[in-house]
């Protein structure tokens, strides 16, 4: 306001040179141009290309070329052929998400509220798995769950597993691998939310005769909602599109939609089918995400 | 009674430590397997202790070639993505302009899109444009998915910066370039370094997007994927363990530096940073 006062009094401040103010206005666009162009060309345009490929004539092939026939029927066709894998993807990812919440919430809560000076060390432990290669870690589960391993031996001895029962190459192994691989993505945002939780609010709740369960349901849980929503999405999106766990820890009976898309593009070279499946996957994930966000009622995370 | 009381107080911490154990278990197994002489090529079980794998990490030479290629790709992709992302972060934090929300969406979307969709769509583009796939298409793909993470990381650092430090420099007759060189850049640098490290680790470890855009080029994750079908050489675990050790070392060093810097700040007295209560 004080800056404007002299102007009104009839003494305009010296205008900046025109060239300079022009450059100022252009500067943000110049800074944005290379990065935005890269994202547009290599992220935006490919999505359009994929959409086009999903409507190509399915009888074409990579060597003879594809004709654009607006073959919308590709979509119902692939859905009919691969709906079990679709269902399995979301089933496994959902199951893994439930497991991850049961494991991840206490972990995030303990680090945020109970760890004291060990907080940073424990946080490093959460991200530590990501220091080494995703594939090598997943292969390590093959050793842990192996038929000759200690875990299977123990479970067989206590009769939790039949004498010829297996852990590897079962849906259990795939869900376990998914839970393990994406757990840090759930824990970190949850931790960030819980860290800001004022412990005095919990004390107040207890003073007002809330049981620990009530205090959790009425105070902790609502206040951790933004982190919970962000963490669930960061977990669910990659988990439902993953096919590494199903391939390495499962069998074709556990194949998820990612395995089908991978083989459509790289083995069968059926691009229209692969593209239609990719788009269906994205649409399904978006539908789940937006439906979930609407129910959770915290749209600000986007 | 006392035991149950003790458990009631500490069960959250106990569960947390068990979960951390679950997270740590595979790393311990990888480290152990790096000292293993497997009984057969397709066996994943621990058989016999040996130091051979560490003595000759490159016994299977195509694995080391793959590691070198991954480092090269990671390095180029990191440099390009860090430069592009940092420029975008500066524009977003320091300037007001039209179309900001569109740019924000463009940066957010790649982080929310399944890797599978990004990988297949790039493949569709390269094939239809007749671009041969290989080293450079991998670099292009990696820059694409790293840029957003760089923007987010650098933006966080820039937004938390005290602008009055720059104003003070200008008041003391520093021109724009000097202010940027001597004040802005050193203050943002930790954010840029963190972003670059994040970009490198994302690039080095990427499998899904690379798999669709590599042609016949083999990166380290692609080598492991292929070897999983033919039998994994134990040296893969040596690389896995070494990667882990290097990353841990970097984190340790940076936390040491951070602690020293914080102590120095404490000695220099409160920064006088005003906090708004909103």
From TrEMBL, chain A:
Membrane topology listed for this record: Multi-pass membrane protein
Coiled coil spans: none
Entry keyword annotation includes RNA-binding: no
Stored Pfam families: BPD_transp_1
Cited InterPro entries: MetI-like, MetI-like_sf
Disordered as annotated region, ranges: 1-20
Compartment list: Cell membrane
CDD domains named in the record: TM_PBP2
Signal peptide stretch: none
GO biological process, one term: transmembrane transport
Any one GO CC term of the record: plasma membrane
Annotated ABC transmembrane type-1 domain residues: 86-294
Keywords for the protein's UniProt record, in alphabetical order: Cell membrane, Membrane, Transmembrane, Transmembrane helix, Transport
Biased segments, Low complexity type: 1-10
Record field: transmembrane: 29-52, 90-109, 121-140, 168-192, 219-239, 275-293
PANTHER family noted in UniProt: INNER MEMBRANE ABC TRANSPORTER PERMEASE PROTEIN YDCU-RELATED, INNER MEMBRANE ABC TRANSPORTER PERMEASE PROTEIN YDCU-RELATED-RELATED
Family label: Belongs to the binding-protein-dependent transport system permease family. CysTW subfamily.
Name the UniProt record assigns to this protein: Spermidine/putrescine transport system permease protein PotB
Organism of derivation: Micromonospora noduli
Automatic annotation (TrEMBL), chain B:
Pfam family for this entry, one: BPD_transp_1
Protein name: ABC transporter permease
Membrane-protein topology: Multi-pass membrane protein
Organism: Micromonospora arida
Domain spans labelled ABC transmembrane type-1: 67-254
Family, per entry: Belongs to the binding-protein-dependent transport system permease family. CysTW subfamily.
Domain of life: Bacteria
Keywords recorded for this protein, A-Z: Cell membrane, Membrane, Transmembrane, Transmembrane helix, Transport
Primary localization class, coarse: membrane
Cellular-component GO terms for this entry: plasma membrane
GO biological process, any: transmembrane transport
Transmembrane segments: 12-35, 73-93, 105-129, 135-154, 183-204, 238-256
SUPFAM superfamilies, per the entry: MetI-like (SSF161098)
Location of the protein in the cell: Cell membrane
